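Revision sheet: structure tokens.
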Amino acid sequence: TLFQPIGGMDRIVDGFERKVGRFIQYNTEVLNIDTSAKGVTITIRDRKTGRRSNISADHCISNIPLPILSKIKNNFSDDFAKAVETCVYDPTCKLGWQANQRFWENDKNQIYGGISYTDDPITQMWYPSYDYFTKNGTLTGVYNYDQDAIRFGNMKPADRIVEARKGAIKLHPEFADKRLVPSDKAISIAWQNIQNEGGGWANWDPNNDDHSKAYTRLLRPDGRFYITGDQVSQLPGWQEGAMESAHHVIEQINRPGLLQAPSTIIRAPNSRRLTRGR
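Predicted:
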């Protein structure tokens, strides 16, 4: 178990924003990608004003989820476009609770961080790795996949809370007390329902030759267009994978010719094992 930044993992993103925030353009849709040996031109649309414009640069690094990227007009080479289209994302749903008492750390439970796996549709319960022995805390009360995630994703948010509480009570009877774990402070997300996400993570299977060929191709740029993110790392679904991928792309830009030529097929990561622990 690793300690977490005070205030949550988003504080890492906030750190980047403090340094480069003035360059970030929000509410912007990518309409077209035109890449070549000399640079990349991106056609964008401001969602507030509807105005279209072009941005040209020596390189483009994209962390757009691959299933979303495949739907954007582009001039990718055939093998690169096929690799992008090969990747699909897994459905996954997550729900968080805020408890008014950290009952999981009491003498009875003595749980300090980590995960409890269950055979209930909630699948997992995650415990915070910070603020030990303080008054209150947050718990991940649902983190599921496949049909369970699809079913939860099709529910209204209020219904997810009801269903999640039923599963949580089986593990921790304290959840029966709504004063201890109130419903009005619960929040959930189904990533497959989010417009620009399409799912939780890239579904790679190392035993699928097409997956390994696609994964290997995506590690190299198409012209000067690079793909980054946990989706093209050995740790899909994890922030560490996104960081490793970013370093990989930076190294290629700083060392022209690295991995430009066709290379030996690299086995795709095992998304199922890495995201589910089994």
